[in-house]
Design a protein that fits this description.
The protein is built from 6 helices and 5 strands, in the order ββααβααββαα. By secondary structure, the chain is α+β, with helices and mostly antiparallel strands. α3 crosses α4.
Length: 190
């Protein structure tokens, strides 16, 4: 009998000896998420997805008041977390082309949330940073998130809150410390 191999879709194929890179004896987890090698990870991801969906359904209307798309909010957050960035650094961090990053930056500059200044060390580049208004918008989003989380946590008893706190600390400790600490987003000076 031929050797069992998995094709691009993770389906078993008997006797297939083609030289495609994803035809291996072990399953391809990139194309078969149902076959996670650690079922506990799959269960945690499913629980998180259900949590995310419910949160979005309940709180999405409040976030629409910001008049920012998710991509624009992400751009604002990335720039504010780094203090200032070049256009190529923004494109790299967002995983987009420089042209796409430039267009998105231009829009947030026109709304007063970001500013561009000439790079003093390289006249051919500009540096992009969050304005006071941009930092204020991020602070407002953070306050809304905190309020929403407080409302979510309020009905839990102390034992359940201890479990939530422990889980958050475990996840926090699992995140490698980034070169630029995202928790250092400047707070508005009100």
């Amino acid at each position: 009998m031929g050797q069992v191999r998995l094709g691009l879709t993770g389906q078993a194929r008997i006797g297939d000896h083609s030289a495609r890179p994803n035809t291996t004896v072990s399953p391809n987890y990139m194309t078969s998420p149902k076959q996670d090698p650690r079922p506990a990870i799959a269960a945690a991801l499913a629980a998180f997805e259900a949590f995310e969906q419910r949160i979005m359904a309940v709180h999405a209307p409040e976030f629409t008041a910001f008049d920012l798309t998710m991509a624009q909010a992400k751009l604002l957050y990335v720039v504010a977390a780094s203090r200032d960035l070049s256009m190529s650094e923004i494109a790299l961090r967002l995983g987009v082309t420089i042209s796409t990053a430039s267009g998105a930056v231009e829009h947030l500059v026109s709304t007063g949330l970001l500013s561009r200044i000439d790079d003093p060390t390289n006249r051919r580049q500009v540096r992009v940073s969050a304005t006071a208004r941009g930092v204020e918008a991020l602070e407002h989003m953070r306050e809304l998130s905190t309020r929403q989380l407080r409302e979510l946590l309020a009905p839990l008893d102390d034992e359940q809150l201890d479990v939530v706190e422990r889980a958050i600390r475990i996840l926090t400790d699992a995140i490698p410390v980034a070169e630029t600490d995202a928790t250092s987003i400047p707070r508005s000076q009100s």
